[in-house]
Structures are given as structure tokens and as C-alpha cells.
Amino acid sequence: MPFAVYVLGLAVFAQGTSEFMLSGLVSGIAADLGVSLSAAGLLTSAFAVGMVVGAPLMALAGRTWPRRRALLFFLAVFIAVHVVGALTPSYGILLATRFVGALANAGFWAVALTTAVALVPDRLKGRATAVVVGGVTVACVVGVPAGAVLGERWGWRSAFWAVALVSLPAVVAVLRSLPGGRSTAESAAPAPVPVRDELRVLTGPRLRPVLLTMALVQGATFCAFSYLEPLLTRETGLGAGWVPVALALFGAGAFAGVTVAGRFTDAHPVAVVATGMTALVVGWAALALTADRPVFALALVPLLGLLAFGTGTALITRVLGLAPGAPTLAGAFSTTAFNLGATVGPWAGGLTLDAGLGYRGPVWVSALLVALALPTAGARWLLRRVRGSARERTRGRAAGPCA
Question: Which residues, other chains included, contact 329 with Cβ-Cβ below 8 Å and sequence gap of 6+?
Fold first, then answer.
């Protein structure tokens, strides 16, 4: 695996910490800025909205840039808005910084995904995708729990400062590993393909169901994860000190899920997705039913991290594999679908809280969102198995007389 792929994963680690760390900070932000829990949860949605809007726009804006220039620009903007967010006393400004930071993150993701898969042969595309997405899971294991600890001891603003500082080594790493200019595979932008042709590929009948499935699965993940802290402290009855532990468990499971998906997705993409989604429906429902039992809740958290990120990685790999004719926008559309779910999920979970349905409400919504997506993924898997069996029978009959 080229070293540059691991560098992209390092940069995604810093950005993933920012994207997910609010799950351990919502209560502190709400108290400090004088807003409700659901309003604090919308900071996650604002980030996701910026990702949804920014992924295609930033990919198009930077489609002719050398890859290193694009990646460095997006990292610089990302660092700047976190400094502003750490300093502001205004909820409105903080909301705006989350949106702008997400635009930069979206641009980075779109370029990073297409760069990673362009650097490896077809048989390693799933693993390259897993390395990049793995940066997010390492963020869940290390960065997000660390942010929760910082928030508990020195306030939520310290976590924003930490993200800005952690992003600086990523800038140095990109500078050193991706040479400038347009002559190398690592740095050159892909040959421009007409935008209309790329959109035709990405909106075709093969990709639409995959993108919709990705949005629903990620909506479920963000819905429950955004309100994991109040669920554990107010429903499960755990102390605040357990929140970083639970976040680390979720991240450890997510890392394992990405690793497993990277090894099996290239050979069995639809089977991995269908199996993971079926298990997610059962898992989210089980967490909702046993949220008042600390042992069960803590046991389910890493399992759900494994299933959520393993399935998400398989879906991203599937999109990139089905869209070789969209070198600029394939990564952008994957990012958009991923974060469309991240936009809807926390919002839907917040509705259940505002409606007085309790802290288990977001978890039940997560189970429902995956259940809505399951028929599409399951039907595609079964159809492929039926067609494969039919082809095997046909080959068997054709080979019979010659045996």
C-alpha cells in the first residue's frame, strides 16, 4: 500500500475527530451557550449539511487543481474555522463554523478518496478505501474520547483547540508525501471528464439504490451516536467518566469493522452490505431495549460500531467500484450520501427528544432507518445469488454431455 494512502488516513483522523466529537460535548455546549440539547445536536447536522453541499461543489471547484494543492487548501480552511469556533461566544457563529469546516472537510474527502483508489490496483481498492475511512475509526478510538475528556476537564472549547493542533501534522505529512506539480500520479488531478457524463453515471439505476442505502445507514449511525452521551448518563445511569470509555469502545469496534470490510468487500460487496444491515437492525433495536442495563449497553456499543462502519466502508467501496466513469464526482457523491444521512439522523433523533419520547427514541429511529434500507440491499443480494445459481446450472448442463 503506498505511503500516501496512509497519509490521507492521518488527515482524515483529525477531521473525523471534529465530526464525531460533539457526541461527548453536547451537554457542555448546551449549558455554556444557553441552548437546548436538540439545538446542540444540530451542530452535528450543520456539519453534515456542509458535507452534503460541499462534496460535489468542492470537488468541481478543485477538479483541475493538483491534488496536493487541493488537499492543503482544504486543510488550512479546516484549521482556521476551528480556531474561530474555539473563540466564539455565539451559538450562531459556532453553527456557521461547523458548516464552513464541513465544506473544507467535504472537499478533502472527495479528493482523498479518489486519490487513494487511483494509487492502487483494482484488487486493493477496498483496502485503500478502508485505510482512508480508517482514519475516522481511529478518531473514534482516540480522538473522540480524548475530546470528551478535554471537554469534561477544561470545557468543550479545549476540544476545538485540540483538533486544530492535531491537524497541523497532517499538513506537514501531505506536503512531504504528495509532490507538487502535475506529473506524478500522487499529485496530478485526473483527466477532466465532462460533468454531464459523470452525473449520468452517478444518477444511473445501478448507483441510485447504493447511494440511498448509504444515506439511510449513515443516518442511523449518526442518529444514535449524536445522543449517545445523554443516553448513557441519563438512561443507562452511567457516570460522566464512562462516556469516553463508551466512545472508545464504539471507535474500537468501528476500526475492526473497517478492517474486516477492507478484506472482504472487494470479493463479496453486496453480501457484506446485506449481512451488516440485517445485523444493524437487530443491534440498534437491542440497544434501545436494554439501554437501562449498563452491561448490555456497553457490550452492544462496540458491536454496533463494527457493524456501522464495516457496512459504511463496503458501501463507499461499492460506489467507487461502480463509477469508474466519474473520477471527479464518485468520491464526492459517496461523501454526500454519507453525510446526507448524518444530516437527517441527528435531526430525526432530536425530534424524538423534543416530543418527549425519551433518550431511547433516537436509537429506535436508527433501527427504523436501517430497516427502511434493508429491502433494497437484500433484494439486490438475493437477485445476484439467484442469477449466479442460474449461471452455474447453465454451465453444468453445458458441460454435462462433454463429461
Answer: 56, 59, 60, 110, 195, 198, 199, 202, 323
